[in-house]
Amino acid sequence: MKTFSEIATLLEGQAIEVPSWAYGNSGTRFKVFGTPGTPRTVEEKVADAATVHRFTGLAPSVALHIPWDLVDDYAALRRYAEDLGIRLGTINSNTFQDDDYKLGALTHTDEKIRQKAIDHHFECIDVMHATGSRDLKIWLAEGTNYPGQGDMRGRQDRLAESLRTIYDRLSEDQRLVLEYKFFEPAFYHTDVPDWGTSYVQVAALGERAVVCLDTGHHAPGTNIEFIVAQLIRLGKLGSFDFNSRFYADDDLIVGAADPFQLFRILFECIRGGAYGPDSEVAYMLDQCHNIEKKIPGQIRSVLNVQEMTARALLVDTDALTVAQEDGDVLLANEIFMDAFYTDVRADLAAWREGRGLPADPMRAYLESGYQEQIEADRVGGTQAGWS
Amino acid sequence: MKTFSEIATLLEGQAIEVPSWAYGNSGTRFKVFGTPGTPRTVEEKVADAATVHRFTGLAPSVALHIPWDLVDDYAALRRYAEDLGIRLGTINSNTFQDDDYKLGALTHTDEKIRQKAIDHHFECIDVMHATGSRDLKIWLAEGTNYPGQGDMRGRQDRLAESLRTIYDRLSEDQRLVLEYKFFEPAFYHTDVPDWGTSYVQVAALGERAVVCLDTGHHAPGTNIEFIVAQLIRLGKLGSFDFNSRFYADDDLIVGAADPFQLFRILFECIRGGAYGPDSEVAYMLDQCHNIEKKIPGQIRSVLNVQEMTARALLVDTDALTVAQEDGDVLLANEIFMDAFYTDVRADLAAWREGRGLPADPMRAYLESGYQEQIEADRVGGTQAGWS
Amino acid sequence: MKTFSEIATLLEGQAIEVPSWAYGNSGTRFKVFGTPGTPRTVEEKVADAATVHRFTGLAPSVALHIPWDLVDDYAALRRYAEDLGIRLGTINSNTFQDDDYKLGALTHTDEKIRQKAIDHHFECIDVMHATGSRDLKIWLAEGTNYPGQGDMRGRQDRLAESLRTIYDRLSEDQRLVLEYKFFEPAFYHTDVPDWGTSYVQVAALGERAVVCLDTGHHAPGTNIEFIVAQLIRLGKLGSFDFNSRFYADDDLIVGAADPFQLFRILFECIRGGAYGPDSEVAYMLDQCHNIEKKIPGQIRSVLNVQEMTARALLVDTDALTVAQEDGDVLLANEIFMDAFYTDVRADLAAWREGRGLPADPMRAYLESGYQEQIEADRVGGTQAGWS
Amino acid sequence: MKTFSEIATLLEGQAIEVPSWAYGNSGTRFKVFGTPGTPRTVEEKVADAATVHRFTGLAPSVALHIPWDLVDDYAALRRYAEDLGIRLGTINSNTFQDDDYKLGALTHTDEKIRQKAIDHHFECIDVMHATGSRDLKIWLAEGTNYPGQGDMRGRQDRLAESLRTIYDRLSEDQRLVLEYKFFEPAFYHTDVPDWGTSYVQVAALGERAVVCLDTGHHAPGTNIEFIVAQLIRLGKLGSFDFNSRFYADDDLIVGAADPFQLFRILFECIRGGAYGPDSEVAYMLDQCHNIEKKIPGQIRSVLNVQEMTARALLVDTDALTVAQEDGDVLLANEIFMDAFYTDVRADLAAWREGRGLPADPMRAYLESGYQEQIEADRVGGTQAGWS
Description:
- 4 copies of one chain form a homotetramer.
- The first copy, chain A, is of the alpha/beta class.
- Chain A has a single domain, classed as Alpha-Beta Barrel (TIM Barrel).
- Helices cover 44% and strands 11% of the residues of chain A.
- Chain A is built from 14 helices and 10 strands.
- Chain A has helices spanning 4-7, 42-56, 74-83, 111-131, 152-169, 195-205, 224-233, 259-271, 294-314, 317-326, 329-340, 345-354, 361-368, 370-377; strands spanning 18-19, 61-65, 87-92, 135-139, 143-144, 175-179, 189-190, 209-214, 237-242, 282-285.
- Chain A has an 8-stranded parallel β-sheet. In chain A, strands 5-7 form a two-stranded antiparallel ribbon.
- In chain A, helix 10 (317-326) packs antiparallel against helix 11 (329-340).
- The radius of gyration of chain A is 21 Å and the shape is globular.
C-alpha cells in the first residue's frame, strides 16, 4: 500500500461543489421540517456554502438552481461569493415545478410548452454568462405514470430536438450536462432513466454535452463504479451528484449508507484519470438534509468524500495489477481492501493543519458560533426551500 | 372454469372503502399540482366519495384522516354522509406532520412526545365513537435516516408500550390496525418495515389488533399474495390499502401496474375466506392521483378491484386442486390463467344494469356534469391537500 | 379498439425461434431434475422443436448452442431439420463452461485465453456458414466476483478488441448479436451488464452488430419496454430472448410472471416497426423448464407470445394518439388497457383452424401421443443438459 | 470510543462455525469449476476445517450436511475432528436434491413424500446424537415456480405439521433451526421466504425452535440488522449463515460486498446480548467459493467477522445513547462511524500473537505448505461437491 505522505499532494486542490438548495429546507412528500437558521435569500445560502469551504477547504464553489436562486444582479452575487472565497458554479434548470410541465416539458406534445421549457434553459444560459458558470445541468424529471399515457418513442425524439436547440445556444466554453434518474417523480417511465439514454442523447449533441451521474439514481443492485469507468472510457462523464441511499433516491449524506461503494467509485475516478487538476469532471453534492442540521450535514459530506478519496489513493495499483494479471482473486481483493480499511483520519487532520485548516472541521464549525449566529439572525422572512 | 352467472351473486355487496384524501391534492416531494374542482372542506370530500359510490355501487364508505378531516361536529358529518348514501369508515391517525415528531412519535425517546402521540390516538378514538367507525388505522411513519441515529431495539420496545396504551383505550367493538411499510419517509430503518414486525406487535396486543397490508409497501420482488395468505391463516389480516407501484410506494391506481398481481391477491382472499359478507377484512384504497383527475381515478380503481375479483371468482378451484395434487404444473397454471384471461367486462356491465347502476360507470360519470359542476363551484378557498 | 378480423392477417408469419437447450435438462445450481423423454442427441432436440412448430405454426426455427450442439455434419442436420419443417437459426457461442474461462474469456488478461475464445467464435461462424444461420449470438457470462479482482476498464477495452476481431470475420449477411445481463454468473461486476454497454460495444463495431434483449436480464423495476423502444429508435435491436422472472434471471415461461409486461413489450415492437415481415428482429425463447415438461412448456411459451401480440395489435392507436396529445391520462391508459383486457383466445382458436392448425395446440399435443412415444423411446444414453 | 485494550478480552472465545461444503466444489448453475486439492472424503473436509481453525483460532467447529457428509461411524468422525482440535457442529438436512422432492418435501401434497422428508430429518437427529450436535438446521428449498401451481396456504399448514413431527423427535438439549430465503430455487413463491414466516412457524413449535438468518436471503434493500435486533428481542435468533451478496444469494465471502453492513449486524448482536459466552446464537458461514481458493476463502471470511466484531465492540455506547436521547442525529452517526472507521488490524495482529496464533493468518497459511500438500496428495477419486 502507498503511504499517506506519498499521496498527500494528490489531495491538494480537491474541490467538491455544494448545492445552494442544501441549505434550504427540503424533505419528503409527507413533510418538510423547518429549522432555525435556514437561509431566506440566495445570499444567505451562498454565505452558508462559503462557511463549509472556510472550515474544510473542500468546497470552493456553489451550484445555483433557477428559478430558486433568481436574483436581479448576478454580477453582484458573483462578487458577493468571491468576497466570501467561493465561486458560483453549475447552473441547474428546473422544469418540474410549473403547472404547465405536469405532463412533460422538453418532451411535451405541445410545442408551446416545449418552447417555454427551452426558453427557460436560454434564461439559464444567460445566467451562466453572468455568473461565469461552465455547466448547464439538466435533470429531466419527465415521464409518465401509466402505461399508454404517453408515446415513449415520440417523447425521446422530441427530447433530442429540444436538447439540440439548447445545446446550440451554449458558447464554446460551456457544457450541457444531462442527468439520468431511474424513477421519481414519474412512476411508470422516465424519459432519461439510465446512463445509456443520457449517453445516446449527449453523444448525438456533440463534444460539450456530457452525462451527470447522481449516485442515488439507479436501480437496486446497480454497480455504479462500472458506469463511472464506462463513462470515463467514453469521455462522457461530466459530473457527479453525490449522495447516498438505502432504497431509492434517499438523498442522504454521501458515504453514509455504503462508504465502501463511495471508495470504489472514487477509485475508478482516480484510475480513469477523472480526478485531479487535469480532469474536467465536476464533483458535486446533491442531498436533502431532512432531519439533520444542514451546514454540518454538508461538512460531513465533503469530509466523507475527502476521506474516501484518500483511501482510494492509497491503493497499491502496481501490486494490484500484478495480482489481477496473475488471476489471484483473493490477493487482488486484499490489496484493494487494504486501502479501504486504512484509517486516514489522523493523517488528514495533520494534513489540514499544515494547510491552515482546522484539524477537525466539524468540531471547529460547532465551536465557531456560526450556527448560533444564524439561528439568532435569521428570524422572520420566508425560509428557503424546494419551491 | 366457472361461468359468470355462477359467480354473479358473489359480487353482491362488495365494498371498497375510499380515502377522503384521494380527493384532495397530493403529489411527490418535488411538486403537488393543483386541479380545478378540488374539495376545500371535509364535506366536499365526502360528497366526492359519495359520487364514486353512486356511479359504481362499490364504495359505500369513506375513510377519514385526522387532523386533515377534523370537524367540530362528527355527528353532523355522519348524517351528511348517510344522506349521500355512504358511511364514515376507518379513522387514520397522523404522527408524521408535526415538528415534534421529526425523530419519532410512538417510539420517541422523550416520554412527553410519546404521550402527545398517544393522546392524538385517544382523540382519534373519540372521533371513532362519534362516527361509528370500527377501525383505528396506524401507519407508523417513524424510523431513522442514519445508522446509529436511534436505538432500533429500544424504539421497538417503546412502540409496544405505546400501542398497548392505545389498544387498551379501544372499546370492545373497535380494532387497532397497524400498517407496515418498507421505507419512506425514513430511509435507514423504519420501525414497522414488514408484515412480520406488524404481526408480532399486534399479536402481543390481543385479538382486536390486526395488520394492514398496503400493496405498495414491500421490497422489490416480494410475493404479496403469500403474505395475504399467511396473514389470513394467522387470523391477522385486518385491512388492505390498495394501490399499485412499479418502483417504490408510487401510489398509482390499483391494478394499473400489474393487474395479474391484483388478481392473485384477490384469489388468496377468496380462497382464504377473507372475501364476502362474513369477512371482517376492510378493503380500502390508498392512492395519490398526482396527474390524473381524482374522481375518475377513484372510479377506475374500484372498477379494477371489481373486475379482478370477478376473474378470481371464476377460477375452477376443484379442477385446480386436482391438478395441484396431481403435480401437473402446467395444467394447474393454465386453470389459474384461464380465469385471469377471461374478459368479464361485458358481463359486469350487464350485471350493473340489472342492479340499477350504469353499465359503464366511467362514461356515466364523465357525462353526468358533476366534474364541470365542481370545477365551477369550487373556486376560492384553500384546496384540500396532504397537509 | 380494433377488431380481431382487422388484425388477423398481421398474425400471419409470426415466428418465434426456440432454443435447442430448452428440450434438454436444466435447472438451478442446487439440482437439475431429469425427466423421461429428454433428448439425447441434437437430432432429438431438433425433432422436439419441430413438434412445437407442427402444433403451433409459430416456431419455424431452432437456435443451436455450440458446443452443446456440435455435430460432424451440419449440412445433414440442416436437411434433417428442413425435412421436419423447420430451419436452423441463431448460433449461440459458449465461453462459460471451460476451466480456462474461469476468470474471463473475451476479456481475459491472458492473450492466449482471449484467442481461444475468439477461435471458438470463429468455429461458430464456420457452423453458421454450414447451417445458413444469420446471427451469431454472444452472451458474455464474464465478470468478477470481488471488488479489485479485475480491472473493469481494461476488460472493457479488451472486450472491444475481441469483438472487433470476431465481427470482422463475419460475412456480409451475418450479424453479431451481443446480449447483456445484469448479473450471474458473476456477482460483483459483469462486463456487459446493461443495454447501454451492449449498445456502445456494438455501435463501435458497425451496422451488422446489434443488441440482444433478454427479458430476464434487468435490475428489479426496470422498464423493459422503454429499452425496447430506445433500441428500435437507435436501429440496434437485434433479437429477444424471451422468458419471465419474478426475482432474478428465473427463466420461467414467457408471460407467466407478468403478462401485462409482455403485452407492453410487444406493443412497442409493433409501434416501432420491429414486428412483421419487414423487421429483422429475431424473437427467441430462452428458458429453463426446471420442473415442467419441456415440449408443453415451449408450446405454452409461443402461445403466450402470440396471444399478447394479438392483444397488442388490437390497440386503437389512432384514438390513443389523440388521447395522448389531449393529455387525457386516464383515457389514454383506458384505451391501452382495453386491448390488454380483451380475451382473444376464441378468435385465435378459429384463426388457427382456418390455417390447418389445431384450435388448441396444447390439447392436441397432449393427445397426440408424442410425449408417450419419446418417453418410451428415449431410454438409455445420456440425456442432453446444460453442459 | 473505547480502546482496543478495553475490548480485547471480549474477543476471546469468539467462534465461527465453518461448513464442510465450503471445502468442496460449488458454483453457479452454469458451471462448477474444479480445483486442485479439493477434498474427496468427509475426513478431508474436516481436516481443512481444522486447518482454518489452527491458523485463526476462530473456527472451532464444522457443520455437516446430510447426505453429503454421510459416514458409517460418526463416533469415529467425531474423534477424528477432536484429534484435529475441532468439534462437529450443526447438522444440516437436505430435501432439495432428490427427484421425489421436485415439487416439495415437508410441504408436499403426497403424504408418502412428506414422510420420506420427515424420516430424513429423523436420520439427521440420529446423526446429531452420534456427533453431539445441538442444532438441526433446516433450509426449506421448497416453493412453486408458477402462479396456481400449488396451494400456498395448504403448503404452510402441511409444513407446520411436518415441523411439529420433527421437533417432537428432538431431545431436550437439541434445537430446530429454521432458515428462510427470499427466493431460489423456487421462483414464484417460497414456503419460508422471510423472517416473519420462519418466526411464526418456530413460535408455534416451542422454545427450542429458532430462526436461522442467512445474510444473503433477503429482498434488495432489506435492513438486515433490524431483523437481527427484532429476532433477539423475540428470543428467536438461533443462528447466522454469514456470506455476502450484491444481487441475490451470491454466497460471496462475508464482509466482501458491504463491510459496513456486517459491522451493523454485529453491533446489534453485541448490544442485544447475542454475542459472547452466554449467547446461544450460532455464528456460521455459508458460502460458495466459486472462483477463489477455498481454505484461504474461509480464512478471509472468519477474519472479516473478527475484524468487524472488534470494530463494533469499540462503539462508545454510553456516548451513543446520550447523542440518541439528545436527538443529535449527526453526532450519533459520527460516534457510530468512528468505530467503523477505526483500523483494528494491527491491534488484532498483536492480540493473535499474544495467544500463540500467527499475526497474519492468511500469510501463515499460504507459507505453511498445506495448500501445496493437499494439491499433491488429493489426486484421483471424486472431488466433493454440492451433490
